[in-house]
Amino acid sequence: MFKHPARRVMAAGFLALLGFSGQALAHNPMCECKSLDDDQIRCTGGFSDGSGAPGVTLDVIGYDETILVPGKLGSDSTLTFKRPEGEFYVLFDAGPGHIVEIDQADIE
User: What start and end residues bound the annotated signal peptide (predicted)?
Assistant: First the structure.
């Protein structure tokens, strides 16, 4: 295909750059939950590239793995819910490799 050695090296370098470009464009999921008062919690989700996450699943799950509050982030990438009784965690699930868990102890 490339008979000249310099062209082979350039082609190999170009292909290597293409392989890494997908990683450079990757974005990590981010989610933060805060207590609004004793009864309400608001979670905000998004990605490290600054994009929001409207419609992404955000469930509140008990330690026994039952879903206490099934939900999806709204158009503003937030979900506000009543604090459940008992122990729980929040699961932000934007798909494989894009999951964030927040334990109740980490919600201020």
Answer: 1-26
Query: Into how many domains does the chain fold?
Result: 1
Domain range enclosing 34: 27-106
What does the angle CA 20 – CA 53 – CA 84 come to, to the nearest 5 degrees? 130
**SS3 at position 24:** helix
Instruction: Please report which helix (H) or strand (E) contains residue 106, including its range.
Output: none
Torsions phi, psi for 24 (to 5 deg) = -65, -30
Closest alpha carbon to 92 in 27, 46, 37:
46
Q: In what order do the strands lie in the sheet with 88-93?
A: 67-69, 57-62, 88-93, 99-103
Range list of H helices, the chain: 5-24
Residue-wise pLDDT tens digits, 28-58 = 999 999 999 989 999 999 999 999 999 999 9
Q: What's the CATH code of the domain at 82? A: 2.60.40.1940
pTM of the model: 0.75
Query: C-alpha 100: how far from its chain's center?
Result: 6
